[in-house]
Amino acid sequence: MGNLNNGPVSYMLTSIGTVDSLKGFNLLGNPYPSAIDWQAGSGWSRSNLMNSGGGFDMWIWNPAANNYGVCNSSSGSIGTNGITRYIAPMQGYFVRASGAGSLVSDNPVRVLEDAFWLKKAPQQDRQISLRVHSDGGYGADEIQVNFGYAANENGAMKLFSAVSTAPSLFLSNLSENLSVRYFTNTADNPVVPFRFIPGIDGNYTISCDFNMSQFDTIVLEDRQLHSSQNMKAIQSYSFHASKTDPANRFYLRFGTDKNHSDNTFPARIYADGTHLVFDLIFIPEETEVYVYDLLGQLLLRKKLAGEIQHRLPFSAPAQLLVVYLKNSNGTMCRKLFWIGV
After folding, report:
1. Strands of the 44-45 sheet, one edge to the other
2. 141 shares its domain with 76
3. Which pTM does this prediction carry?
4. How many domains are there within the chain?
5. For residue range 149-203, what is the model confidence (pLDDT) as tens digits?
């Protein structure tokens, strides 16, 4: 039996590796007989780690989720997949090095009371946590979208599970796959796409956790089913997924998308082959819909409730349609090509 670790402990770091996506990752461990605080104000020397959102990321395996969770040293106490700022005694964790060097911890990082793995922590005000879990029990995953930063930037890299049946939820920016991203505000970023890969065909549920008072609108859009859900009204969305589904299936929308709607009448109109789709999520009033052919013949007229996406069955030969929307706050007119059935 030796003496328990006390005082400074140094770990050597390397930034090389045989797998490009894993270069810079180093497996370390808590050397002390007590928990340690990744966000401690002193006691850490981490200058050789990659910077992320003004801090440094660390990843821990969560066997209940069959996925890694990640927590940052400066962006809130709670991370993904149940991982927080506290690292339990003898717990292994990954860090990502920017170059060869060392990571040093000292006694101030130690937590001496009420310390245990997966500590509870409050949700941050401008943070959205999206979690997916397999209804069949194959695991779970989580991403975080954070607002209030000076510029849009990448956060924690996605460390994929080695369990083939585990689900994967992640954000992508250029060639990077991420578990965390940082954004300026929702006005500059009205749409945030994210990706989902099921480990196995089956049923899944996405839940959304956020401070209700901090966001006027949060809509989850399922591009595969052409459906939208107001996540402020219902915080979970259930769906079926197959391994052959495209990964870029989902969007989060925080306001009107200038590519799909105008600011004065924020509706979206499109066709999915057998239906005309009227997305009135951002319109609270009842809205009248008129659909004409180019000769002016009325093909469809209907009153639709606001704050809902409507999918109306439609049968007609291939042609150009004129769609007119009207309510107490204004009007909208669009041309739409119908491919026929």
Report:
1. 9-13, 101-105, 44-45
2. no
3. 0.74
4. 3
5. 999 999 999 999 999 999 999 998 878 899 999 999 998 888 899 999 999 999 9
